[in-house]
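worker-03 picked up job from queue 'complexes'. Input manifest follows; two sequence lines, order preserved.
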Amino acid sequence: DGGITQSPKYLFRKEGQNVTLSCEQNLNHDAMYWYRQDPGQGLRLIYYSQIVNDFQKGDIAEGYSVSREKKESFPLTVTSAQKNPTAFYLCASRRTGARGGNIQYFGAGTRLSVL
Amino acid sequence: GIQVEQSPPDLILQEGANSTLRCNFSDSVNNLQWFHQNPWGQLINLFYIPSGTKQNGRLSATTVATERYSLLYISSSQTTDSGVYFCAVAVQETSGSRLTFGEGTQLTVNP
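worker-03 finished. Artifact:
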């Protein structure tokens, strides 16, 4: 099936630990995005990438890092510098270009909790 | 940055009722999407509608770009329509199109 796969569905982090959330897409989309959602709120943009080996900070990038070594993969690392990491994390992708290039599609999300 | 306001924040309906959800935004946009977030957190695309009107079954949406608002209509609501409805907009930038989300409308449809 074509789509966006996020793993794991649930993740627990210990104090001082870095954890990495996986996002893979087989839609051949150029752009990929990471969002954070806190309870009862909308989504906020963490990082995004338009092409391989290039990415930009979103509105809440502090305490997070990303890489984009392959077109289909955009992993997010939650570092120990992120003091309040408990949230729901959603990955999205978008096909750039004039024809249908503005629609973002989302994965099923990863719930991160601190032990 | 661009501001997105959704109303009402909460809505409770009886099955079969109709409803209108509103999204106001503070600047010109080249992307507007409506999503339904199900109880498991999955965001489901409902409409891509930066302008004009679209319909899909019991759902329809209208965006009046010149007046900076969009409406989502749900007719003959069902219990499965319950969840959170988000409006998200984007302004094209040199480095790509970033979505800004509203706070959502929590819809509860009672049997």
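worker-03 released lock.
Chain B is about 0% helix and 60% strand.
Chain B touches chain A at residues 1, 4, 30-31, 33, 35, 40-43, 45, 48, 50, 86, 88, 90, 95-104 (CB under 8 Å).
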